Amino acid sequence: MKNNPKASSQEALEESRLQRHLELSQVGIDFPTPKGPFTALQDVNLKIAKGEFVSLIGHSGCGKSTVLNIVAGLHQASSGGVILDNQEVNAPGPERAVVFQNHSLLPWLSVYKNVELAVKQTRQGRNKAEIKEWVQHNLDLVHMTHAADKLPSEISGGMKQRVGIARALSMEPKVLLMDEPFGALDALTRAHLQDSVMEIHASLGNTVIMITHDVDEAVLLSDRIVMMTNGPAATIGEILEVDFERPRNRLEMADNLKYNQYRHAVLTFLYEKQKKIETVGAAKSDLSKGKMSKKKSSAA
Amino acid sequence: MLKTNTAPVLFQKMKTNMVKDKFFATLNALLLPIIGILLFVALWAAVAKNIDTSLGEFPGPMAVWEQSSVLIDEHNAQQEKAEAFYARQEERNAKRVADDPSYAAKVRPFTGAPTFFDQIWTSLYTVSIGFLMASLIAVPLGILCGLSKGTYVAINPLIQLFKPVSPLAWLPLVTMVVSAVYVSDDPMFSKSFVTSAFTVALCCLWPTLINTAVGVSSIDKDLINVSKVLRLNAFNHVLKIVLPSSIPAIFTGLRLSLGIGWMVLIAAEMLAQNPGLGKFVWDEFQNGSSESLARIMVAVLTIGIIGFALDRLMLMLQRKVSWDKSATLR
Fold it and tell me: Is B186 an interface residue toward A (CB < 8 Å)?
């Protein structure tokens, strides 16, 4: 499907979006504050097709992570809702696996055991040998079999993130949610991991939602880039279709005119249409918001 | 030419420097504590000579050293006596059974006064049981408090209220309750043991409880999210996420508890005349012989050494149990 002429591939995507694989409708969320409810998100509408790779981009504090957490089920939308394959999302679950920004591996378990925990938890009648095989297979996907017995503290940041991805993939999720997965990595490591993610996406065809701050990353990886307006009451500003054939090659794309047009479109949105003016007041409200969400989670 | 000549020399120099550094590091680690101890002993000896009490001169290091060997001799003598007693008893019983096969032999325990080492053993046994009882309650309760804000808010006033209470305030109450409740014809433990163990347990509860609760409530939020995404049930959540990540905090609490428990036990034994090191100290004080003070000083040092050893033991246990081997353990 990916290698079909582009017109038909666009049509196919459009069609499968109509089949409602993953649908966010009228999603909004309020956080309670002493001064009354704070509306972080409002009227977020998005339909995502099976196998589609969608990036969420926007300034920090605009609620990208909140959108992702709502899809993951870690936050509850105050209004609207998320439907995945005709089922409402209202709790976290392995069919919507999350790759966290700071890998979140259990530091007391080896790389192998970290993935094994996820496999055992989501085993579908697998016996011991099959569990082992599936763990190995997923470590293989991210090229981490060589460090299977290492503890997370003994491997590099990029490697940890690979293991985090392997753990998420091993749950065989319908949707893979990635919260700035490469944000904390250096540029070269990031490029490696982006290639790995493209490779995996090509072979497994998971639906992916990824949050990123990196315009190049968004254009390189995505089928669509969802650009979010600034908060409060953030919502989707524009959606950019990235119409490139896969597999994509970062070197070839660097000289591509269309690639630069896409980049330009995203940059224009971020730095002209949604120019963010950092004020002390804004920083303060950011802070109090952070506190609120912390309180909320500890109460939950 | 110059380069090829200097490189090995430089390397050699670096190597000797490293060896030197290492040598001095070990020397410092060994020598400095020894210097500290020697200084203390010298000061002790100098000061002791100038203190006259109604029981004679305050014991210096030499007197204490002598008494410690006296205590060991006493223990050995008592041991021999006990062995002789049991041998005689056995012989007598064997004879009586031989004379009259229907006779059921009675074995009576040796009733000699407990020696210093018997008292050490009693104290150690009591503190371990008290500490174990407290830990078995405090760790699960602490986990519950850490997981559920409601439980914590409900229990917190009680913790704050009872934490600062001295064990000696509890002691009369515990003694009376034990006397009233623990009634049996053939008790497995003596009442004094139960009283001491309960008093120790009451004081060991709080540090473990508080530290466990704090450790559990400060688990990385992302790890909790991982658990949610994996849909771990409550039992697995505690076993796979909560316990491993709060092990360091739990052990901090356990070590504090054991330290407090050991201190409390000695005081409780003194006040309640329960067997143990505390009773040994009190008996010697009441005895008031010219060696009493030296014998008490032996007990003081022994209490210190055992307290230190108990703490090291907990540390070793923590090293064994905790995943975080790189964490500095003090």
Answer: no
pTM, two decimals, is 0.79
Residues in chain A with CB shorter than 8 Å from the CB of B150 are none
Cβ neighbours of A72 in B, within 8 Å: 225, 229
Q: Please give the full DSSP string across A131-198, using - where no structure is assigned.
A: HHHHHHHHHHHTT-GGGTTS-GGGS-HHHHHHHHHHHHHHT--SEEEEESTTTTS-HHHHHHHHHHHH
Tokens of A2: 């990916």
Please, which pLDDT band fits residue B7 given cuts at 50, 70 and 90?
low
Q: Do A298 and B149 touch (CB under 8 A)?
A: yes
pLDDT in tens, A233-264: 889 988 999 888 888 888 888 888 888 899 99
Question: Cβ(B138)–Cβ(B253) under 8 Å?
Answer: yes
| Residues B263-290 pLDDT 10s | 999 888 888 888 889 999 999 888 888 8
Q: What is the reported pLDDT for A10?
A: 66
Determine whether the interchain pair A297/B241 forms a contact, defined as Cβ–Cβ distance below 8 Å.
no
Those residues of chain A that have pLDDT short of 50 are 1-6, 282-284, 286-300
Per-residue pLDDT band at B319 (split at 50, 70, 90): confident
d(CA A51, CA A53): 7
B237 shares contact with chain A (CB less than 8 Å): no
